[in-house]
Amino acid sequence: MGNLNTLINRMRYWCQTVSLGYDQSNRWDIKPGGECDCSSLVIYALREAGFDTGGATYTGNLSSNLTARGWRRLPADGNPRPGDILLNDVHHVAVYLGGGMLAQASIDERGRASGGAAGDQTGRETNIRGYYSYPWNCYLRYGAAPTTTTGPLKVDGSCGPATVRKWQAVMGTPVDGIISGQAVPDERTYWRPALDTSAVSYGGQGSQLIGAVQRTLGLKRDGLLGPKTIKAIQGHLGVKQDASFGPATVRALQTRLNTGRF
């Protein structure tokens, strides 16, 4: 069984006690004088601390593997707890140590992702520093009690974990409150759907929930909540088809889900 104190101590060891460098091309060479990147270090330390990380290999599949193994995806509200994993699903991951400090693997000695010398050449390739407001998508917290929804959903136009859980239950897919595996919008042809950051994860592999919705609507099943799928959902719900998964669409969805159907 995993131990959060051991996780914190192992991150301290790798980021402060020994010389461990950063190199994405040699990211599993985790030893004194070796190399890692942000996700390989966190996954390695989790395993050292006795946690089952499943098939986790990088930031994009860390959330799905850990939430299936006792971790909860929570909003990044600026108040992490010791042992929380601070996650941006695409770009970065760190571990909160407590006392306002986090541990992370950052960048190589030349400010590049790969190609530098082995070991920590600057004392900052892996480091401990004060908590900062990187655009974290969530905190992953071990053993946090799941939030449950009793009674009807509040029709407030906010698509958070409660709405997603209800949607998943209605569609018959696993219920975890997260629309997982989404593509990062380019913000030119496709803007981010109005989903609470604690209710979505990225990686591009698609979501079982959205796949089930696409099957119901007769669409190609890629599991991605993109413009075509959003417009089809809007048509199904009888709201304006503008490919914007915003409050009006979410209110219509919540109203429909409160009837026990999609």
From TrEMBL:
InterPro entries: ELLD, NLP_P60_dom, Papain-like_cys_pep_sf. GO terms for molecular function: cysteine-type peptidase activity. This is Peptidoglycan hydrolase. PROSITE patterns: NLPC_P60 (PS51935). Belongs to the peptidase C40 family. Keywords: Hydrolase, Protease, Thiol protease. GO terms for biological process: proteolysis. It holds the Pfam family ELLD. Signal peptide: none annotated. Residues 1-143 form the NlpC/P60 domain.
